[in-house]
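Researcher: Please predict.
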Amino acid sequence: MTFKLMRATPADIPGMVAVWYSGFTSKLMLNSFPDTAECHAYMAKTMEYNMKNNEQVVYMIVVEEDDSSQKTDVGTKKERKVASFSQWYIHHGGDFPDWKTRWLQEGSEIDATREKLFRPAANQHAVTLEERPHYFLEIMATDANYRKQGHASKILEWGNQAADKEGWECYLDAAPTAKGYYNSHGYEVQEEKQHVEAVSLPMRRSAKKVI
């Protein structure tokens, strides 16, 4: 077996949804994204929508590939399983788009629940980066069976290096328990920017132009 960092395709969406529910198990997340067949379908639909219609959204994944090849009618195919996935937003500057442009609205009470989750984080994000261009790591999760193997770090460094080529900052909202991990990758907590209702920490990585 080998592991590979790559940009996700629609074929990877079922694996990404599975990783989401393996990685996000807190009551807070499950209240907004219940572990039901209906919500799994919603997640898949949202990811597919972003892939097709939102060019600023980039899904980067680490997959485990079976070294053996499978013959098909159009050639050979390697089986692969998503080990870790991420959702980045590449912001070129100006007002940052509302979270609802990346998460489909369902027209039900669950929309209000998600608003309570996303709005405080969106507010501290806007205050921290203002209108500057940056790479925003909105989501990152790793399958429970693949943790502590460096897969998330590969994804994080992809974004850091891409931002460095542009001379841009990076931003993410971190769980307090992950503060040290993100510190080790150059991110610093912006304590004075944290929204009073946010459960996450606003973390920023300074621009580092590659010459």
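Model: The mean pLDDT is 93.
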